[in-house]
């Protein structure tokens, strides 16, 4: 079996497993207490925060752990929105943000806010000038992903950050797909991530808020989590997340270059071997491990099922299934094919042989499905 769905969740890094097991045995005591075992837990939690902060280019007191990347995004956007209500209640996001961002923006809208969604090009990339034009004197917060989760397009965060800085608007960056995989952009006011995306454990998110950025937790007050995230801290999870991120940072340059070459091969070979295929996302400004393509005249759900039978675990940017009947909002915003969609995202250590076998298998699978659909008179 070849696991090609790292954009959903990266397999646990060995460093994370080791750190998690060690912490579960030695740092399970309450880090808020004063006795020796508790102090050991506090030291491990503080070390994890400092290690993550170093990788994000932040100060330790600017970083805190959440229960997920989704919660980090929600706390980041709504926290800035509520803290800056006197400045205004306008929110700017891109149209291709992760659903967690769009849902948080809708929550702000329900509290009296107004949301502007900035469009993207056919490659899924925001125009910095268009984003800057959407900013207003009453804009409370803006949000732009570092890279798209469905097609891998890297966004011009630093150019947008410069426009936000000039307008006096804090910029929240959803960096879930970038942390541990590519260098992080600068200029952000707040940044969110998710540990299981870089090989850490699920259930651990990270939110960094720069000093000087007005932010107030939208959650009820609690004496824990520095008043930011209520509840008992997940010390073992934080330690494992930090260990995985340190390891990924050490490997990043070499492994990203290797995976990028494999993705380049997929981008070139799939349309060469399979007719009526559209490869999506920016070919240059892209994540190193992710490629998405759509096949005309093929049902996306059937395509994923057949690839699974062939030993390839991939996902789809399109959610056009019997349960939702809704195409991907990202692909719709880009104006590209929304059906017959396959997202391939390679985890660390993916062998070149697995990619070559994938390239050999896909043409036959697509051909069989198209023949079957022609025979049944069903379109994709």
Automatic annotation (TrEMBL):
Any Pfam family the entry gives: Aminotran_5
UniProtKB keywords: Iron, Iron-sulfur, Metal-binding, Pyridoxal phosphate, Transferase
Q: Which reaction(s) does the protein catalyse, per the Swiss-Prot or TrEMBL entry?
A: (sulfur carrier)-H + L-cysteine = (sulfur carrier)-SH + L-alanine
Aminotransferase class V domain segment(s) = 3-358
List, separated by semicolons, the cofactors it needs.
pyridoxal 5'-phosphate
One MF term in the entry's GO annotations: metal ion binding
Q: Which InterPro entries match?
A: Aminotrans_V_dom, Cysteine_dSase, PyrdxlP-dep_Trfase, PyrdxlP-dep_Trfase_major, PyrdxlP-dep_Trfase_small
Q: Which residues form a coiled coil?
A: none
Name the protein family. Belongs to the class-V pyridoxal-phosphate-dependent aminotransferase family. NifS/IscS subfamily.
Protein name (record):
Cysteine desulfurase
Q: Which organism is it from?
A: Bailinhaonella thermotolerans
